[in-house]
Amino acid sequence: MKSVIDSFVSLGHWPSAGSFGFNTDILATNPINLSVVLGVLIYFGKGVLNDLLDNRKQRILSTIRNSEELCKGAIEQLERARARLCKVEMEADEYRMNGYSEIEREKVNLINATSDSLERLENYKNETLHFEQQRAINQVRQRVFQQALQGALGTLNSCLNSELHFRTIRANIGILGAMQEITD
């Protein structure tokens, strides 16, 4: 610092003869040159620097505004998505509950239909058994009747002569004729 002061003090000791010369003292001339350059830069570069800083400030502010708008948009989308999710979850619960009740209803209907089918099959089986029993009984009756008729015919043929045979036939024809007259 002392050298700077010395350089200003030494200005007063210059000869006033009007000669022009170079100061070769580097330490004395550098601060002066730097202060002049800085002064010129500050004076003329101040506007450019302010414009650059203002532009940068405006870009930063617009970026912040855009980010805030994007954030608001994202929050709105998130809220819409949450509302849709709640709606879908409620619909899913409703479908689930309806599905369970539908399954229970179908299960009851299936059990009832199966029970009805089993009852019909049981009735059909019983009817078939009854029919088969009646058919077997009828076959046995027919066979017994045929055997009894053959036995009776054999007995009649051996016991009857032709005169008795004709009288029996005439009596039966008379009975049939009387029955026919009653029905007419």
Automatic annotation (TrEMBL):
Protein's membrane topology: Single-pass membrane protein
Localisation per UniProt entry: Membrane
GO biological process: proton motive force-driven ATP synthesis
Keywords: ATP synthesis, CF(0), Chloroplast, Hydrogen ion transport, Ion transport, Membrane, Plastid, Thylakoid, Transmembrane, Transmembrane helix, Transport
GO molecular function term, any single one: proton transmembrane transporter activity
Record bears the keyword Phosphoprotein: no
TM spans (from-to): 32-49
One Pfam family matching this protein: ATP-synt_B
GO cellular component: proton-transporting ATP synthase complex
Predominant subcellular localization, coarse grouping: membrane
Family: Belongs to the ATPase B chain family.
Biological role stated in the UniProt entry: F(1)F(0) ATP synthase produces ATP from ADP in the presence of a proton or sodium gradient. F-type ATPases consist of two structural domains, F(1) containing the extramembraneous catalytic core and F(0) containing the membrane proton channel, linked together by a central stalk and a peripheral stalk. During catalysis, ATP synthesis in the catalytic domain of F(1) is coupled via a rotary mechanism of the central stalk subunits to proton translocation.
HAMAP family: ATP_synth_b_bprime (MF_01398)
PANTHER family: ATP SYNTHASE SUBUNIT B, CHLOROPLASTIC
Protein name: ATP synthase CF0 subunit I
Provenance organism: Dimerocostus strobilaceus
Higher taxonomy: Eukaryota, Viridiplantae, Streptophyta, Embryophyta, Tracheophyta
